[in-house]
């Protein structure tokens, strides 16, 4: 496997985690704002849980998330 955009696998994983967290935070903001009526409490808490899980994984890899 040859990577042309990242120095190593950890950098690629870090990028993916950061991007996914950003996407989930954006969705979270929408769920708290203009789209609040489209989310059940369970869906909202599951979204928060996914963010927390990814932050935990990132920190375990030594990333600043």
Oligomer: single chain
Structural class: mainly alpha
Number of strands: 0
Strand content: under 5%
- What's the N-to-C terminus distance? 27 Å
The helix content, as a percent range, equals 55-70%
Return residue spans where pLDDT drops below 50 for at least 5 consecutive residues: none
Topology pattern, helix = H, strand = E: HH
> What is the rounded Rg?
14 Å
* Residue-averaged pLDDT: 91
Overall outline: elongated
| Largest β-sheet summary | none
Number of alpha- plus pi-helical segments: 2
Can you offer a commentary on this structure?
By secondary structure, the chain is mainly alpha-helical. It is about 70% helix and about 0% strand. It is built from 2 helices and no strands. The protein has helices at about 10-30, 40-60. The chain starts with 8 loop residues before the first helix and ends in a 5-residue tail after the last helix.
Topology:
Elements: H1 9-32, H2 41-60
Summarize the structure.
The chain has 65 residues and is mainly α.
List keywords for this structure.
65 residues; mainly alpha; single chain
């Amino acid at each position: 496997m040859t990577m042309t955009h990242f120095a190593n696998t950890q950098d690629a994983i870090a990028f993916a985690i950061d991007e996914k967290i950003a996407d989930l935070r954006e969705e979270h903001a929408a769920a708290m704002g203009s789209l609040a009526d489209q989310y059940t409490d369970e869906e909202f808490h599951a979204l928060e849980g996914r963010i927390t899980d990814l932050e935990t994984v990132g920190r375990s890899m030594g990333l600043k998330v």
